[in-house]
Amino acid sequence: MLNTVDNRLTAEDRKKQLVKIGLMMLRDKPIHELSIDAIAGQAGISRSLLFHYFPSKRDYYVAVISAAGRRLLRVTKPDEDLPPDEALREMLVQFVAFISRRRTAYISFVRGAAGGDDYAVEVYDDTRIGLSRRVLTYLGTPEVADNRSSVEYLRIHAWLSYTEDLAIEWSGLRESARPFTADELIDHAIESLHTLRKL
């Protein structure tokens, strides 16, 4: 258990602490299975005090899953000084690594959205839009990101789904059973992107 009892925490610091605990627990179980009592216990506070910071369980879940989305965008953001093709590759390197390291939590993130939980859908969509914008910028067409009905935007959005699912399935295999390395997966993803754009 974390030794986190500290009555000197500001309200904002306490909220950040509670979200951080939620993110840690999200590594092992889906968002809707997080126990409010267990989270409060880890923070060294009562359940009722947790609800002082987050009015409802839903509000808490929204805060945690939103933090997960922001973390994904942050860790997959490459060095701004890289040339576009290198930036795209670096983004994919970090994307695949993120899914591999946090596979259970990531699946929870994706399936929470697929399951129709409105807060999960909204956060997932915002995260996917952020990743799509980034890819379109690397491809030299950032203006397309503002037109979600354009063919180019839809292709990038669909390609991200393909790459994501490939990384999820690949990372779930034993290393000895994986048909290709992480680098080969990324090479394939980039090749499929360029092929898709020619269709």
TrEMBL record:
InterPro entries: Homeodomain-like_sf, HTH-type_TetR-like_transc_reg, HTH_TetR
UniProt keyword list: DNA-binding
Keyword Aminoacyl-tRNA synthetase appears in the UniProt entry: no
Record protein name field: TetR/AcrR family transcriptional regulator
UniProt keyword Protein biosynthesis, yes or no: no
Signal peptide limits: none
Lineage: superkingdom: Bacteria
Domain HTH tetR-type intervals: 12-72
Portion annotated as DNA-binding: 35-54
Organism of this sequence: Kribbella yunnanensis
